[in-house]
Amino acid sequence: MCGNNMKSIKVLIIFFAFFSALVGQEKQNISHPFSNSWVITGEGGITIGGTDFPDIKIDYSGRGSFEYFLPTSSSSVFGIRLLAGGGYVAGQGLSSAVPEYINIDEFRTKIVYGGAGLVYSLSLGEIVQPYLFAGVAYMIFDPLMKDGNKMPRNAAGDYADDDKDFMGEMGIRFLISNRFSLNVSYTLNYLINDNIDDIWNSKDDAFHSIFGGVSYYVFSSSDEDGDGIKDSKDMCEKTPEGVVVDEFGCPLDSDSDKVPDYLDLCSETPKIAVVDSNGCPVDLDNDGVADYRDKCPETDENIIVDKYGCEKIIVKAAVPKVEEKELDADDKLSLVLSGTANFQIGQSALLPNPMSGLEKLSDYIKVNPDTRWIIEGHTDNVGLASSNNKLSLDRAKSVLYYFQKKGINKDRFEVIGSGSSKPIADNSIEFGRILNRRVLIQEENSFREKNQLIKTVNTDEYKFSKEYNIESLIFTDGKYYCIQVSSWKTKSIAEQEIRKLLTKGHSAFFVYSKPTHKKEEWYRVRIGYFDGLEEAKGYLKRIR
Predict the structure, then answer these.
(1) Rounded Cα–Cα distance for residues 437 and 396 (Å)
(2) What angle do CA 217, 229, 488 make, to 5 degrees?
(3) What kind of architecture, by CATH, is found in domain 334-448?
(4) Distance CA 422, CA 543 (A)
(5) pLDDT tens digits for range 501-523
(6) What secondary structure does DSSP assign to 367-435, as a single string?
(7) 386-443 pLDDT, tens per residue?
(8) Average pLDDT in the 515-535 region?
(9) pLDDT, tens digit, for every residue of 438-463?
(10) How many other C-beta atoms are found inside a 10 Å radius of the C-beta of residue 189?
């Protein structure tokens, strides 16, 4: 059996080399699921002797172990294992060349052992977790004949009934949940002294074990909200899916106003500003100047103020009259706010007492809850394009904030900043620039007729089996692209979300997914399809 033992050692060496190759290719941004975990394992299996008895005789054994895996931020992890077990090792077919055992053709040795060692595991995904183990155990053994009596040298007390057992093991754990796994493994047990079969010669004894069992993971590092931060380190549990988080698992708050970016309607608010629930600076006297900049904080209503919030002395100049286009029930549902009449130059705050048409439009929107609207800001071409884009978006957000204060849900609006890209007049003259500085509020249905960007693709053409996440919220099968808008555990809510998107002109659908190692099922709402990544990114930026 020495040749078989050497083959087993070679198999372990090859398996270890294969592991080393995998380590070189592991993804360092994926944390191993065993990180910082305690593991309790119970296993049972068979033993196959590698002794001086030439014929194989299978017997059984069992063992239990307790492991601790160190914290890690990579896909590989090291751990410590304590184990104990027992069972039988057997053999048969002794050659007649051993005179003392001429009438003994079979043995069965009872074994009991306990030991420790190191374990190394490499994660190959959410389910498959192969590992290697090396350790040593103290073993007590008792060789017996098939009639239950002690073997000759055992009965004569020719050797001690204990030995050191050097173990090498390779196995795979299959995670079936965040707490349990099913395991299979092969172990080579190599003994220093040649007495486990009661026969001594120059060849050391060994035996092989094949186990199957179950492991339970205590305080396992899971990620219930799927934000990429393990629960043991996550300071903000149940973060909505798709929200960008910091190293502690909390939504980013770039301007530190205690309103996370994904809810913040006013980004880049100064730290000294007191903000409301939307992340916008508080303006208690409603003069259009935030309190942190307002040097006259108790200005009366209907007073036009300067950039410091104080009453402004107005010198009238010859400014061409700009007609405010109001809501007409017989015309398309839209309204144009003049940038000159409703905003201070270079400012995004909506001036007090906006035109009556905006008040009428807000009343119409309230009594027609099924309508959806576009708020699109525009500027002239004076200044940098980046500054104009930001100003147009901020002015559109100010109009949205006006509707919110009127009690209208922000989800009914799509806010766009088009900068100077869509002029309606000649920017080379002052009158044309005045006309181009505007905010258009338009009912969504009429808007989408001119802005249909989505390519219609038969769902059979999109290969979900080949799909992968190429960028945040964007998926592709290598040919077409789609955007993930939201995820829901309830199908009816996902369908309701899809209906909302369809009314806005988006080609929406959902993808059903159920990870095999989790109990939750998800309905992921998507928009698609697109021919290229840049097209998908542009559309995602627009709907945000």
Answers:
(1) 12
(2) 95
(3) 2-Layer Sandwich (3.30)
(4) 18
(5) 776 767 778 787 765 555 567 88
(6) H-TT--EEEEEE--S-S-HHHHHHHHHHHHHHHHHHHHHTT--GGGEEEEE-TTSS-SS-TTSHHHHHH
(7) 888 999 999 899 889 888 988 899 888 999 998 988 887 778 877 778 878 888 888 8
(8) 76
(9) 888 888 754 444 334 344 455 567 78
(10) 25
CATH number of 464-543: 3.30.70.1070
Task: Give the helix/strand (H/E) hosting 501.
Answer: helix 491-503
- R_g over Cα of the chain: 37
Query: What is the rounded CA–CA span in Å between residue 365 and residue 473?
Result: 31
Q: CA 221, CA 122: separation in Å to the nearest integer? A: 15
Please give the Cα distance from 366 to 363 (Å, whole number). Answer: 5
Burial class (CB in 10 A: 0-12, 13-18, 19+), 271: exposed
Residues in the chain: 544
Task: Tell me the residue type at 143.
Answer: P
Q: Residue 19 is which amino acid?
A: F
The confidence band for 210, taking pLDDT boundaries of 50, 70 and 90, is: very high
Question: Is 379:339 a contact under the CB 8 Å cutoff?
Answer: yes
C-alpha count within 13 angstroms, C-beta hemisphere, residue 509: 12
Query: How many other C-beta atoms lie within 10 A of the C-beta of residue 333?
Result: 20
Give the residue range(s) of CATH 3.30.1330.60 domains in the chain.
334-448
Bridge partners, residue 484, by sequence:
526
Q: What is the mean pLDDT of the chain?
A: 79
- Nearest one of 89, 83, 153, 77 to 119, comparing CA atoms: 77
Give yes or no for residue 468 having a pLDDT over 50: yes
pTM (two decimals): 0.44
Four-residue CA torsion sign, 260, 265, 266, 271 = negative
**Residue 353 φ/ψ region, left for φ over 0, alpha for ψ in the -120 to 50 degree band, beta for the rest:** left
DSSP 92-107: E---TTSGGGTT--EE
CB atoms within 10 A of CB 65: 22
Q: What are phi and psi of 358, to 5 degrees?
A: -70, -35
| Residue 334 predicted with pLDDT over 50 | yes
Is the CATH code 2.40.160.20 the one for domain 2-218?
Answer: yes
Query: Would you say 376 and 439 are in contact if contact means Cβ atoms under 8 Å apart?
Result: yes
Rounded Cα distance between 71 and 65, Å, is: 20
Pair of tokens at residue 98 = 């051993």
